[in-house]
């Protein structure tokens, strides 16, 4: 059982919170390997991480897909390569932009909620009450949130991909007279099944990362209501930074930028 220190000097230490997040992530990973998965509150957390975030995810995917298509098509038409607009779109939007944007939305809406909710429980001593009842906060609070985010973020990313491609197809037909069948055929040629599998894997890792950071910042909250607000804000910023850092290294590994080959 992971105990929390009571030293008030550690309340806003970013390094300490990152260290605690690493330890908490290890605890979660160990429990997952052992099959120690708590189903309590799981459906509720899946609803929070999934359907309740669907509208902003789809809206941002739609308009970002259209914006990216406009910028891509405008440049490619200068070189007479309008038929590969869909392929260029798929390489950047589907591989990188969609999963990162979706994860950023989840970090802002769900990760902050985790930090605020658990932080409020921490400052009102409800976490201590769980210990008194011999209930592990990791099993009761953290595990359902981590599993929910890890499961729902890939689903949201796939929906974002579909909506983004639809938006790109629409704007390419309206603004550049590019037939939808040509755009979609180019997407199909450039985007393979392996790319989709890699995107799902990346999204699942992002989901786990967001949940662990949100829960860690909540569990390390000090300083009353003011501390809850700071914990929520810091959790979102840290999640965004972590998403981009992890995305960089995952992209190097998954898409073989370093010449490392993985067979799926």
From TrEMBL:
Q: Record's superkingdom? A: Bacteria
A GO molecular function annotation here is: phospholipid transporter activity
Extract the InterPro entries matched here. Answer: ABC_MlaE_roteobac, Permease_MalE
The protein's topology relative to the membrane is: Multi-pass membrane protein
Which keywords appear in this protein's UniProt record, sorted alphabetically?
Membrane, Transmembrane, Transmembrane helix, Transport
Its main localization is membrane
Record's keyword annotation contains Transport: yes
* GO CC, alphabetical: ATP-binding cassette (ABC) transporter complex
Query: Localized where?
Result: Membrane
The portions of this protein that span the membrane are 14-33, 54-73, 151-176, 196-219, 231-255
Q: Which family does it belong to?
A: Belongs to the MlaE permease family.
- This chain's protein is named MlaE family lipid ABC transporter permease subunit
Say which species the protein is native to.
Limnofasciculus baicalensis BBK-W-15
């Amino acid at each position: 059982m992971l105990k929390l220190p009571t030293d008030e000097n550690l309340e806003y230490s970013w390094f300490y919170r990152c260290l605690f997040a690493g330890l908490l992530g290890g605890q979660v990973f160990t429990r997952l390997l052992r099959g120690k998965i708590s189903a309590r509150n799981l459906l509720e957390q899946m609803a929070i991480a999934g359907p309740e975030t669907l509208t902003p995810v789809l809206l941002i995917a739609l308009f970002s897909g259209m914006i990216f298509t406009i910028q891509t098509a405008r440049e490619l038409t200068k070189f007479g390569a309008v038929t590969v607009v869909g392929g260029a779109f798929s390489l950047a939007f589907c591989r990188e932009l969609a999963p990162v944007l979706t994860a950023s939305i989840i970090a802002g809406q769900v990760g902050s909620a985790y930090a605020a909710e658990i932080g409020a429980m921490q400052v009102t001593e409800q976490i201590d009450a769980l210990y008194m009842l011999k209930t592990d906060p990791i099993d009761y609070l953290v595990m359902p949130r981590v599993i929910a985010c890890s499961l729902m973020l890939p689903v949201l990313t796939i929906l974002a991909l579909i909506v983004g491609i639809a938006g790109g197809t629409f704007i390419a037909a309206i603004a550049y007279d590019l037939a939808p069948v040509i755009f979609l055929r180019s997407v199909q040629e450039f985007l393979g099944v392996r790319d989709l599998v890699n995107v799902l894997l990346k999204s699942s890792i992002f989901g786990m990362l967001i949940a662990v950071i949100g829960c860690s910042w909540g569990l390390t909250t000090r300083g009353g209501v003011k501390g809850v607000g700071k914990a929520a804000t810091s959790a979102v910023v840290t999640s965004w930074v972590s998403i981009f850092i992890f995305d960089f290294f995952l992209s190097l590994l998954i898409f073989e930028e370093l010449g490392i080959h993985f067979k799926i």
